[in-house]
Every structure is written in C-alpha cells, then in structure tokens.
Write a structure and sequence with these properties.
Layout lengths: L1 H14 L3 H9 L1 H19 L7 H20 L5 H26 L10 H7 L3 H10 L2 H13 L13 H17 L6 H19 L2 H23 L3
Length: 233
C-alpha cells in the first residue's frame, strides 16, 4: 500500500499534471482545485486493489494537497534556488500527509491486499518496479529541471527542443534497464549521442553548462533507480 500510494502521488502530481494544467494553476484557483481533484482521484483508484474503504483518507490527502499548493502558488515567482527548496519542501509535505493517512488507516505496515490484483501487485516487488519506471518519466524531468536551475545553470530542456523531455525519459528508462540486466557497457550507447549533440545545443541556446548538468543529473538518477530496483531482484 505504501508503494501504491507513492505511485498514485507520482501519477497525480506529475504524470497527469500537463503543461496546460500548470499554467491554469498559476492564474486561477480553479486550476489548483482541478489538480487537487486529479490527485484525489488517483489516490482513490490506486487504493482499490488493496481496500475498498480508503476513499475518506484519499479525500483528506487530496484536500490537504490542494491547500499546500494554494500556499505555494501565493508565493509567486521566486529565484531558482528558492524554487528548488520549495519543490523539495512541497514534496516532503505531500508525502508526509500520505504517510500520516496510511498510519491513521493502519496501512503503513504490511497487510495483505483485499483483491486478487492487489495480491499480485504485492508479490515479487511488482509495484516497486512500476513506481521506479514512472519516477523516471515526468517526475524525473521536473526534478532535473529544478536541480539544474537551483545549481545556477540555465536549463535547456524546459521548454527545450520539441520532444526533448520525452527523449530524456526514454534515455533514463534505457539506462535503468541496462543496469537491471547487468549490461553497464551498453550505457554509453545512450549517453554518447547526447554528448555528440551537446555542441550544437550549447551554441544554439547558450547553455552548455546547463545542458551538461542536466545530462549528469539525469544519468545519475537513472543509475540510482536501476541499482535500487536491481537490489530487489
């Protein structure tokens, strides 16, 4: 259940928070409420394989999530370093709220799921692998952007060249997969093309340092996830 709620958070707060929804949140309270409703929906949907009675806790977490985002939105635009700190604090608060709801409902410790799907998800760390790969998509893209900006370099992937964020997602997934398969020698096949393109990208956007920093942070995150999942095999 803990892994499932982590997955629900990744889906609701990142994967299904589109660029349009982000802009809506920045200019309207309705956008913040809509985002909170999406988070609540995913928390509830992801709880169903384990229990049918967790919806009040999903609602409580969703309302709290919305209130936290409202406070964050009222701070407006801030410096990149401050934005990184606020992002980390925001995630700590959101995950802490989920942990409190799990503890309150008795699901913070291991309990067998109440459905066949839930029992399958609990077996052989299926949920950990799903959550790990989801983490390497939109959540990793956002984290890399904020980390690079917080380090003082100009990010090149937001907005970046068309489709670049999806290329980064594919790269991270491939690197993590190579680590899982113990094929570390194949990782340069993913990294070298990016390095070959760096000269062009750096000249085009004047952000060579930011580009290299993004590549380094992205690869490090993919390696970390791959190694953690490999330890579960």
């Amino acid at each position: 259940m803990v892994e499932m709620m982590l997955l629900a958070h990744l889906l609701g707060d990142y994967v299904f928070q589109t660029d349009g929804l982000v802009r809506w949140k920045m200019r309207s309270m309705a956008g913040l409420v809509a985002h909170g409703a999406i988070v609540t929906l995913w928390l509830w949907l992801c709880s169903l394989p384990f229990t049918l009675s967790w919806w009040p806790y999903a609602l409580a977490v969703g309302v709290t999530h919305t209130l936290i985002d409202i406070v964050r939105a009222r701070l407006g635009q801030v410096k990149p370093t401050t934005a990184l700190i606020l992002l980390l604090l925001d995630q700590i608060l959101h995950l802490g709220t989920i942990a409190a709801a799990l503890a309150w409902s008795g699901w913070l410790q291991y309990r067998p799921a109440e459905t066949a799907l839930g029992l399958w998800l609990q077996a052989d760390h299926h949920l950990a692998f799903i959550a790990g790969y989801v983490l390497l998509t939109m959540p990793a893209w956002v984290l890399v952007h904020f980390v690079v900006r917080g380090m003082g370099a100009e990010s090149t992937s937001l907005p970046g060249r068309p489709g670049e964020k999806y290329i980064g997602m594919l790269e991270r997934a491939l690197i993590a997969t190579f680590v899982l398969l113990d094929q570390f020698m194949l990782i340069p096949l993913v990294v070298v093309p990016r390095l070959a393109m760096d000269g062009y990208a750096g000249q085009l956007k004047g952000g060579r340092l930011g580009y290299l920093n993004e590549l380094l942070v992205s690869i490090s995150l993919a390696l970390a996830v791959g190694l953690l999942l490999r330890g579960l095999l």
